[in-house]
Design goal:
Shape: globular
Radius of gyration: 19 Å
CATH topology of the largest domain: 2-enoyl-CoA Hydratase, Chain A, domain 1
CATH class of the largest domain: Alpha Beta
Structural class: alpha/beta
Oligomer: single chain
Strand order of the largest sheet: 1-2-3-4-6-9
Largest sheet: 6 strands, mixed
Number of domains: 2
Strand content: 15-25%
CATH architecture of the largest domain: Alpha-Beta Complex
Number of strands: 9
Helix content: 40-55%
CATH superfamily of the largest domain: 2-enoyl-CoA Hydratase, Chain A, domain 1
Length: 259
């Protein structure tokens, strides 16, 4: 069986499963195009309220395929550059998707697999899962935004430790550091992520999209710019039908029903 990205649905949640049997779901360029297309379709589908990214066979993703990378050394540099561009297109598609994207991690998230998890809005992980940026161990440097996400989420010295030492860091420590949102029993990450997706489905789609946008651009904006952005989003949200339903439901002491 070849590497592929499998798509399925559970209620209002789209499930994307990394599958590469026998290779711990190592990434392949075919996955990148499929992911970008699928996320683009999900963006336009109002029936989808959340996306869960997971891996087959109780393993998230071992990152890039070293055999393929070794073969690419004999090819023009543009071949590898194009492959990374496509991977980065996937990362940007996750960040730009208006729906919340939740990583469900079991086993290992290594290299670009770790980067993919970091690109998601929320991470749910099995207790024994290992996260590792092992690029330095094979003479390589990070891709997939791994160094960007880590240096913004952690103190610079700690990000440097993870990137320069290339040693596995366990899920409980990342949970303590705030990078993993929910720590669950091994084997329960997907179910917990789907439950979280169900929670997102009960929220205002308009508010969720706008909150994701605010958090996405917060690090790049000055305070004045961000305050202006918050004002604009708040005003637009107040005049959206979701706010009418949400406020009315709260005052009537009932659950809101968003369309």
């Amino acid at each position: 069986m070849s590497a592929e990205l499998q798509a399925s649905r559970q209620d209002a949640t789209l499930i994307l499963t990394l599958s590469n049997p026998g290779a711990k779901n190592a990434l392949h360029p075919d996955m990148y195009a499929a992911a970008i297309e699928t996320l683009s379709t999900a963006e336009r589908d109002d029936s989808i309220r959340a996306v869960v990214l997971t891996g087959a066979d109780q393993c998230f993703c071992s990152g890039g395929n070293l055999h393929r990378l070794l073969e690419n050394r004999s090819k023009d540099k543009s071949v590898q550059a194009e492959s990374i561009d496509n991977l980065h297109g996937w990362i940007e598609a996750i960040r730009d998707c208006p729906k919340p994207v939740i990583a469900a991690v079991e086993g290992v998230a290594a290299g670009a697999g770790f980067s993919l998890a970091l690109a998601c809005d929320l991470i749910v992980s099995g207790t024994s899962a290992k996260f590792v940026m092992a690029y330095v161990n094979v003479g390589l440097t990070p891709d997939g935004g791994g160094s960007w996400f880590l240096t913004r989420a952690l103190p610079r010295q700690l990000a440097a430790e993870i990137l320069l030492e290339g040693k596995p860091i366990l899920a409980p420590r990342l949970h303590e550091l705030g990078l993993v949102n929910k720590l669950v029993a091994d084997g329960a990450a997907l179910d917990a992520a789907l439950a979280l997706g169900d929670e997102m489905a009960n929220r205002s789609p308009n508010a969720v999209e706008r909150i994701k946008s605010l958090t996405h651009y917060a690090m790049d904006n000055t305070l004045a710019q961000h305050l202006e952005s918050e004002k604009q989003h708040f005003v637009e949200s107040l005049h959206h039908r979701d706010a009418h339903e949400g406020i009315t439901a709260f005052l009537e002491k009932r659950k809101p029903h968003y369309k």
